[in-house]
Automatic annotation (TrEMBL):
Gene Ontology CC: membrane
Native organism taxonomy: Eukaryota, Metazoa, Spiralia, Gnathifera, Rotifera
Organism: Adineta steineri
Superkingdom of this protein's organism: Eukaryota
Residue ranges crossing the lipid bilayer per the database entry: 22-42, 54-76, 96-114, 135-155, 188-207, 255-279, 299-321
SUPFAM superfamilies, per database record: Family A G protein-coupled receptor-like
PANTHER family, alphabetized: FMRFAMIDE RECEPTOR-RELATED (PTHR46641), G-PROTEIN COUPLED RECEPTORS FAMILY 1 PROFILE DOMAIN-CONTAINING PROTEIN (PTHR46641:SF8)
Keywords: Membrane, Transmembrane, Transmembrane helix
InterPro entries per UniProt: GPCR-Ligand_Int (IPR052954), GPCR_Rhodpsn (IPR000276), GPCR_Rhodpsn_7TM (IPR017452)
Name of the featured protein: G-protein coupled receptors family 1 profile domain-containing protein
Pfam families (alphabetical): 7tm_1 (PF00001)
Residue runs in coiled coils: none
Gene Ontology MF terms in the entry: G protein-coupled receptor activity
Residue ranges occupied by any G-protein coupled receptors family 1 profile domain in the UniProt entry: 34-318
Compartments in which it is found: Membrane
Length: 336
């Protein structure tokens, strides 16, 4: 009785409605505009043959899908007009696209980390592994695995689950504990944990490669500095090629910076939902009071919203961290 009174006094339903209604709007607005600008910049001529940017471009497409399919119904839900809460088909499609899109976008960034590691390696064999054909094959493989991993949602997701204590009508089957465990584990492992491991591991390996290359260049300059007249001849003969090489190196270095900051944003934004998923699985057999369920549902709502940060802020991350990105953005505005 005390729990019910406390729940009523806090009014969790109103809190969740406010979160869905007012927090979703800025994510939708800035996320959609940012991702459109991302696509316009990443399709410019300077990036056409860059494999890392190919992954960025593909990730941006799925980020946009996640924002539209995942956040727009949440905004409608804040006003009580979300059709996915009343239709089983729409409910399952929404869940699948949101999970699949988030998973795919994350793995494309992971593949970009692998590409940066290979391209920054001094081993010529590793650098030769990078081809556009292999990049497209790797993306297709990621999507195929995603279809298999999240196919369970067409069985484990249904409407009217709020009547059984779920945060919303469209949710995991509350009467099927195996479905709840499977769905939570699929998202945690395939969409969050494994991509994060790949991103962090290959991000650190890339930094090591860059550091080793810089040390090697410094050592060569120190130990093998040519005489002044030889240096003048070298500059006269190779000035153009050196300038082009420096431009490419600067662009690659900036792409690495953009990528590593994006990895940090991914880890931070997915941390709350990761903790919640582990907690929900660990306490799935516990008997919970009405107050505890209400708190958990509200915390879950906040964690889900934080997950969309990663899909919404990539343009602003790239703008702040990549000079070449900002330069192309300025050129784009001049053309407009």
């Amino acid at each position: 009785m005390n729990n019910i009174t406390t729940t009523a006094s806090i009014n969790f339903s109103l809190i969740n409605q406010i979160i869905n209604r007012y927090v979703s709007i800025p994510f939708l607005f800035f996320g959609i505009i940012g991702n459109i600008l991302n696509l316009l910049i990443f399709t410019r001529k300077i990036f056409h043959n860059n494999i890392c940017v190919t992954y960025f471009r593909a990730s941006t497409i799925f980020d946009s899908l996640v924002i539209i399919v995942g956040l727009l119904p949440r905004l409608f839900n804040g006003f009580g007009i979300d059709p996915t809460q009343y239709s089983t088909v729409l409910c399952r499609i929404r869940f699948f696209i949101t999970y699949f899109g988030g998973y795919t976008a994350a793995w494309f960034i992971s593949l970009a980390c692998v590409e940066r590691y290979l391209s920054s390696s001094r081993d010529i064999y590793k650098r030769q592994l990078i081809t556009m054909k292999r990049a497209y094959i790797s993306m297709i493989c990621v999507m195929l695995v995603g279809f298999v991993a999240f196919g369970e949602q067409f069985y484990c997701i249904d409407i009217n689950q709020n009547l059984l204590g779920a945060p919303q009508s469209c949710y995991q089957l509350k009467v099927n504990i195996h479905c709840q465990i499977a769905d939570s584990l699929m998202q945690f492992i395939f969409e969050i944990l494994l991509p994060a491991i790949f991103m962090v591991t290959f991000g650190l390996l890339t930094l090591r490669n860059v550091h080793q290359t810089q040390n090697r260049i410094s050592a060569i300059r120190t130990n093998h500095l040519p005489a002044s007249h030889q240096l003048t001849n070298i500059r006269n003969n190779t000035s153009f090629s050196v300038e082009v090489n420096r431009t490419v190196q600067k662009r690659d270095s900036q792409l690495i910076t953009m990528l590593l900051i994006q990895v940090a944003v991914f880890v931070i934004s997915t941390l709350p939902i990761s903790i919640y998923k582990i907690y929900s699985i660990a306490t799935i057999y516990s008997t919970k009071s009405t107050l505890r369920k209400s708190w958990e549902n509200t915390i879950f709502n906040i964690c889900v919203i934080s997950l969309f940060i990663n899909n919404s802020v990539t343009f602003y991350v790239y703008t702040l961290t990549g000079r070449v990105f900002r330069k192309e953005l300025m050129k784009l505005f001049r053309l407009a």
